Amino acid sequence: MGDYVWFHDVSWHATYAIYFFVIGILAGLSFLSYGSWRTPALRPLREKAAYGSLVMLAIGGILLIADLSQPLRFLYVFNPAYLNLSSPLAWGALNIVAFGVCSILYILALRKGDEAKGRLFATVTALLALGLPVYTGYDLTVHQSRPVWNTPIMPVLFVALAITSGSAVGSLLAGANVEAQKVLRQYMLWSAGAVAVILVSIMGTTNYGGSASELTFMIMTTGTMGILFVGVGFLAGSVAPAVMLYAPMGKSQSVLVISALLILAGSAALRYVILMAPQEVQTLY
Amino acid sequence: MSEELRLSPIETRGVAGKKRYAMVVDTRRCIGCMACQVACKAEYDTPLGVNRTWVPYKVVGKYPNVKKHFLPRLCNHCDDPPCVRNCPVEATFKVEDGGFVLQRYERCIGCRSCMAACPYNARFMLPSHRTYTPITNVVDKCTFCFHRVTQNLVPACVQTCIGRSRVFGDLNDPNSEVSYLVARNATQVLRPEEGTKPYVFYIGADRNTTEFGRDAYLRPEVMELERSAFKNHFKI
Amino acid sequence: MQTPKVTRRTFLKVSATAGAAAAAAPKLLTAMEADLGGKDFGPVSGAERKAIPINCHVCNIQDGAIAFVENDRVVKLEGNPEHVSTRGRLCAKGNAGMWYSYDPDRILYPLKRVGARGEGKWKRITWDEALTELAGKLDAAIKEDPNTVFLKYGRNRTGGVIDRFMHTLGSDSILNHTSVCESSKKIGMEPTWGPDIETPDFANTKYVLNFGSNVLEASYFHNPLSQRVTEGRVDNHMKIVTFDVRLSNTAGFSDEWIPVYPATDGAVALAMGHVILRDELQDSDFIQTWTNVSVKELKDHYKQYTPEWAEKISGVPAATIERIAREFATTKPATLFTYRGPAKHMYGSYNEKACMMLPIMTGNVEKQGGYCLPRGMGWPQPQPQPPKPAKHAYMNNHRHPHYPLAGHGVGHLLPFHIHDGTVRINVYFTYQDNPVYTNPGARAVWGKLLKDEKLIPYFVSMSSHMGEETALADLILPDCPYLERWEPESMPNSLWPWLGIRQPVHKSLGESRENRVLMRDIIWKLDPDGKRGMKQFWNFKDGEDYMRHHFDNVPGLKEAGGLNYLKQHGVWPIYGKLNPATGKVSDKTGREIKAEYGLFKKELSAADMMGASVDGRGTIMKNGKAIGVKRNGRNYVGFPTGNRLINVRIDEWAKYGFNPMPTFKRIPWHETMKDDELVLTTFKLNVHKQSRTAAVKWLAEIAHSNPMWINTETAEKIGVKTGDLVRVESGVGYLVTKAYVTEGIHPKTVAIPTGFGHWEYGRLATLKLKGKKGDGSHGEEDPDLNNVWWDDKGVHPNDIIPAMADPIGGSQAWYDTAVKVTKAGPNDKYGDSHGDWDKHYAYFKEGMRYAYTGDMHRKMHPEMASWAGPDSVKHEEH
Ligand SMILES: Nc1nc2c(c(=O)[nH]1)N[C@H]1C(S)=C(S)[C@@H](COP(=O)(O)OP(=O)(O)OC[C@H]3O[C@@H](n4cnc5c(=O)[nH]c(N)nc54)[C@H](O)[C@@H]3O)O[C@H]1N2
Ligand SMILES: Nc1nc2c(c(=O)[nH]1)N[C@H]1C(S)=C(S)[C@@H](COP(=O)(O)OP(=O)(O)OC[C@H]3O[C@@H](n4cnc5c(=O)[nH]c(N)nc54)[C@H](O)[C@@H]3O)O[C@H]1N2
Ligand code: SF4
Ligand code: SF4
Ligand code: SF4
Ligand code: SF4
Ligand code: SF4
Ligand SMILES: [Mo]
């Protein structure tokens, strides 16, 4: 007994956060591969990023399907008779498939060395890749009843996170290539900074909301969630890399590696907390 | 102002001549007996751990001026249901005549988007174990007892309601008791700010129970122990 | 179907075709209100389910119900809409009743113990083996002394089968559980006005005083009365004031909750009476005409009970007592209700009496909206019946030498008398009784007793479940749960009398046999050819045949069709139809049916008066029996008491040195309680029934643990927060449980609900779901039990509650135990519970000192100084 409330399960468990994380990297890598057509310094990453993003797509797809309680029915999403276009998930599914198709075409073009097609597919793939963090962010934002998720900035945050984590992976892939690292450092620096700023604004509005928002704020800033969100996500995963990369020492190879790792850890933690904390509040209603 | 906006939120947005079922929960009459919750479980062989309806309570006040409030909860069969908007495959849908928000179990892919979309926690994932009903691993929720209502029976929870706190009927029928109750009493709906236009109306609902209480900060530990058992079970 | 076969556009078409019932024009389109039940359809199959009228027996309120059956399985239970009391509704427990039948750990075959007592090792044997063994033991016992065959039952709705069985064996040793239930309430009421309970007309009243009844959760008669309480409160704008030591759901729903110090309701009620009589708010005419005292006598007597006096004792401010008394006396109609709150104390009968005086002195008796007599119906017994046993047992159902006024027995003292050798046992039967869990002392007393093979040489349980008592048996005969039995019913649970039945909804599962058949089979084994003269009383084919003897000749019912009518409707008479627009029963004209009031003012007919005489006080006597009372020249039936009046003064009480007038006695040890001591109360909550619902999954899910309620201020003093472990220590033992800190309890009280903390009763109740099925469990597994998410089963308080009896009513003083509550120490483990036999025994001895034969009796009754002492009353045999 005790003042009794019926408890509720959450909608999405941790696998969904991993999926978000994977999708972010995938998009980020796709941007890099596209970027290599415009910024020659990134040229060495073109194939690696393209392949990497396809691998990530496979992992993400498996995660997404496995997370369904009726995985065998995942094809229903593509049944035009069932399709509900007001659902971000429906758009997301179409987006993923389109992305998958394009990135395969892109890789084929790269293998054939067809520059014109490569450039074209790189652009289309990157645009579709942009859709992925946008849709995952949107997937949360549409839930207007949930604090944090309901901030319209969610898609922006997810794009920023895609850039940070994609660049971080890119930086790890780029190894000792100084030219590439120079560009990636800029990417990481500014996107990590942007993430930090977005987080501050989200937390600010959350703490000033109604009691549900305040409660979400409490959950996100205390206990295990607090360590993950404030400690790993915000301080270690965005502020620290931004500061380190901004400082002159940011050019050193080891700082780059550390920053990249911190960014990856941070963006994973952020996805987890942003996904779970507002659901945790909801279980009490 | 457009005609649409001048409609009060209790008026149906459906087509005239069609049914618009609603439930009125008169909290002044609710004695917290839990008969509704159990009747609903029996009606649907609902598994443990999930509920189509539930009755939370709050003890408010300071000794010796203390009261206990109950708030029966269920799906609101919203006029603007975000769960329906959010389902990628139209496995959940709204029945125009009657206003039921229902599930197509054989179509549901189990993505849980509808659960995330519902501001009221009215939806849940069916576990893989049930006593005798073969429908598992898809999302379920209160159906406003569609199968009973279409046979001219009130929902199971209304049928057994000891306090006669739950009343069910057609809001489009001016002679129905729900119409009468809604017209004669001040009513509340849950979280009206979500714009869902619920069709479960409360009379005399206490703010201590309808809102996220700030006392959730206090984290009453007995409940917390229960909650962690629940979270362990669901691997949250 | 997998889903409602509709699209959002074709709904109308579907509703018109789904199911044969809707084949005509869909009612949906024309009906104003949907029906309130009586039919049921499978949500998946869409098929209409078979409806069988029954009588609920998850608890003892006896609501009329319907069982809906699909694929030979009861899938839904519902209130019977034709039942005047139930009106189609069931409580949470009633809705879950099929899990008594389908409990995976139900016992379905005769079992013989193979390990040590209580070890849990069983061997399945045949009925014949079981009956042969049992008959042998019974034969030997009867030869020695039939009274050494003992049967103790808890809930007994057999309609006389148990008495028939025991009397056939020649034994008078039949004991019930009423002394742990509400017997002091009954004893407070019976000598006063006849029946053992009241029927408050909640639906029509304007004011309710509720002393310690938790009618919205438990109490007699939870479901039917709760319906009327909400009606009265919301539709009729009545005010309800509840006195309780804690915030029960009833208190939380009431306009006012007035916390009282435990056991002091009597003082508050007397002080209210004082105010009413002082301020001339009484109904003098009613008192003069219908009671055995005059207004003057009453006024003189009540002078002593001032509100200031009551405030000191009860903690209820004198001003509140004054205000409530005046409100109650000046609001008409008004009524009063009590249940176990005032009664379950050392002097509970006095408390009950003091409470019931309030509606009496204000003349609210038998009025619309008032305090009404119960309405019931009887039925004849199959003939012939066995004669009453030749020899009286030392103690039984209605008799205990030290508690001559306790007409419902003092069952909870039995272990001590067996231990002392006063009661000797050869064969001990248990039926629907679980004293090892439900009685004071629990494991420490009953557990110890029933394990003792010297004192209890042969222990037979007739049970469907492995309760704590059955687990100690030598032989288990699998009885059927209520959905598989034939039983006659009637309960005064509304203002309309009725007869009802319980009938099997399907073949009894496994080899279980319903009680009356099982007992018949024992007798047939003992007397196969009828030579012993036993078989003649058990001459029936089956349960249904037995029912025919009850019902086929009841006047009125007989014409309606007798048992066949009951099989079809479940209840008789049917007063009207459940109106879907109001939820009430309407007559043919559509108006709500009206109850009959003023039963005591019914006049005797000339035929009744033939050969009757009227004595000096107006009592009308016929054939040595009082049949009515003459008042103002008219011959009324009056009240069902010895003199047909309300006995405010109970002369029988004075005979034994008790105060015959309304009075109050404080619990002696409450007066001397130390600052750090608190009073331990236990209570029931809405979704559980005594010891037997812990394995009902839907109920266990709602409530499965029972932290101890403690007031915020008190908790602060001992440094305890909600969830902390506390050690609760009484004079007979201690337990360790969790605290629930709440504003909703008197600061000098702590409260632990009963129904939790099982150590038997199957895997769900004990939360051993990972464990192997017990040797005695035969039910079909329920896959849903994989979904059990809770991990706390609670802690049961009865080990640490001593057995004490109300010297008048004989009732267990459940709510008087003084305890010390401290934060648990490093060696205390959650769930520890320990009671000590020797200490329990010492308390039993101490309690006996208050009996009329004990030395404390006189000290407690200085006002009875002229009483000549226990030797002056030769105890009259029954
Ligand atoms: N849900 C449910 N219903 C039941 C039952 C059940 O087990 N569960 N059992 C049935 C049976 S057998 C019975 S006898 C009845 C019992 O029904 P009730 O008597 O209504 O219930 P209890 O919980 O036994 O006790 C009633 C109240 O007495 C309070 N109390 C304790 N001490 C005092 C006191 O000194 N003064 C006052 N005023 N109040 C006090 C307790 O806090 C509790 O709320 O219920 C019947 N109905
Ligand atoms: N602490 C505390 N203790 C209490 C109370 C309290 O409020 N607080 N309440 C008291 C009250 S009011 C009462 S009435 C008593 C009741 O106490 P008991 O009379 O002991 O009754 P139950 O607990 O209802 O069940 C008795 C046993 O019957 C068996 N049984 C269950 N169903 C069936 C069946 O269908 N057939 C057969 N043959 N057996 C069956 C089970 O083994 C069960 O354990 O408890 C009392 N004990
Ligand atoms: S209450 Fe929730 S599930 Fe029900 S219709 Fe509204 S949004 Fe959908
Ligand atoms: S879980 Fe089923 S009903 Fe819910 S959104 Fe997904 S597919 Fe639709
Ligand atoms: S309307 Fe039916 S499905 Fe909904 S809560 Fe009530 S009983 Fe359950
Ligand atoms: S059945 Fe009615 S009175 Fe009982 S808890 Fe449910 S809504 Fe409240
Ligand atoms: S109160 Fe509940 S359990 Fe008791 S008889 Fe009535 S419906 Fe059944
Ligand atoms: Mo009882």
Q: Give the neighbour order of strands across the main sheet of chain C.
A: 5-4-16-15-14-6-7
Low-pLDDT ranges of chain C: 1-31
**Relative strand content of chain C:** 15-25%
C-alpha-based Rg of chain B, rounded: 18 Å
Helix percent of chain B reads 10-25%
Count of helical regions of chain C: 30
- Rg of chain C to the nearest angstrom? 27 Å
Shape of chain C: globular
CATH class type of chain B? Alpha Beta
Bound molecules: ligand MGD, iron/sulfur cluster, molybdenum atom
Structural class of chain B: alpha+beta
Shape, principal axes of CA atoms of chain B: globular
Largest sheet of chain B: 4 strands, mixed
- What CATH architecture of chain B would you give? 2-Layer Sandwich
Strand share of the residues of chain B? 15-25%
In order across it, which strands form the biggest sheet of chain B?
8-1-10-9
The termini of chain C sit apart by: 65 Å
Q: What's the CATH topology name of chain B?
A: Alpha-Beta Plaits
Largest sheet of chain C: 7 strands, mixed
Number of domains of chain B: 1
Terminal Cα span of chain B:
47 Å
Write the layout of secondary structure elements.
The complex is a heterotrimer of chains A (285), B (236) and C (878).
Chain A: H1 14-38, H2 46-67, H3 88-112, H4 115-141, H5 154-174, H6 178-207, H7 211-221, H8 223-246, H9 253-282
Chain B: H1 3-6, E1 21-26, H2 35-44, E2 57-62, E3 65-70, H3 82-86, E4 92-94, E5 101-103, H4 113-117, E6 124-125, E7 139-140, H5 146-149, H6 156-160, E8 166-170, H7 177-184, E9 187-188, E10 200-203, H8 207-210, H9 221-233
Parallel strand pairs in B: 1-10
Antiparallel strand pairs in B: 1-8, 2-3, 4-5, 6-7, 9-10
Chain C: H1 11-17, E1 50-55, E2 64-70, E3 73-79, H2 92-95, H3 98-101, E4 111-113, E5 122-124, H4 127-144, E6 149-153, H5 161-169, E7 174-175, H6 183-193, E8 199-200, E9 207-211, H7 222-235, E10 239-244, H8 249-253, E11 256-259, H9 265-278, H10 284-290, H11 295-302, H12 307-314, H13 318-330, E12 334-338, H14 340-343, H15 348-361, E13 371-372, H16 414-420, E14 427-431, H17 435-438, H18 442-451, E15 458-463, E16 475-478, E17 487-489, E18 499-502, H19 515-526, H20 543-551, H21 557-560, H22 563-569, E19 571-572, E20 577-578, E21 585-586, H23 606-609, E22 613-614, E23 619-622, E24 625-631, E25 634-636, H24 651-655, H25 668-671, E26 677-683, H26 697-702, E27 708-711, H27 712-717, E28 725-730, E29 733-742, E30 749-753, H28 762-765, E31 817-823, E32 833-835, H29 837-848, H30 856-860
Parallel strand pairs in C: 6-7, 6-14, 9-10, 9-12, 10-11, 14-15, 15-16, 26-30, 27-29
Antiparallel strand pairs in C: 1-2, 2-3, 4-5, 4-16, 8-13, 17-18, 18-19, 20-21, 22-23, 23-24, 24-25, 26-31, 27-30, 28-29, 28-31, 29-32
Helix pairs in contact in C: 4-19, 5-19, 6-15, 9-12, 9-13, 9-15, 12-13
The complex binds ligand MGD (2 copies), iron/sulfur cluster (SF4) (5 copies) and molybdenum atom.
Residues 30-36, 55, 70, 72, 161-163, 165-166 of chain B line the site of one iron/sulfur cluster.
